[in-house]
Design goal:
It contains 3 helices and no strands. With about 100 residues, it is mainly alpha-helical. The longest helix has about 50 residues. It starts with 19 loop residues before the first helix and ends with a helix. Pfam families: RHH_1. This is Ribbon-helix-helix protein CopG domain-containing protein.
């Protein structure tokens, strides 16, 4: 039984420049993972992009929750003010109206 390697469709070749020390560390990881440089870089790029999207979504949600908190606080203050007026002493209201 043989395993056929299915090539990744629409591959583009790129050239990058990296410092020697980074390349040595990278090659060590590649060898440790039993992968080739291209596979490792593809996985790293996918991971980075997914992590970046996750962080952006987290920040958007955080901003939305903060905006909703401000809206809810404003509504609560308005309702508190209206409730406070509703429970004021009716005698005071009558006295105010007679002035």
């Amino acid at each position: 039984m043989s395993l056929e390697v299915c090539p990744v469709p629409n591959l583009k070749r790129i050239m990058i420049s990296i410092p020697d020390q980074l390349l040595q560390e990278f090659d060590g990881l590649v060898n440790h993972e039993n992968k080739n440089r291209s596979e490792f870089i593809r996985e790293a790029m996918k991971f980075y992009i997914a992590e970046r999207r996750r962080r952006i979504l987290h920040e958007q949600m955080k901003k939305g929750y903060q905006e909703m908190a401000n809206i809810n606080l404003s509504i609560a203050r308005e309702c508190f003010s209206m409730e406070h007026e509703a429970f004021e002493d009716p005698g005071e209201k009558i006295a105010e109206c007679r002035k």
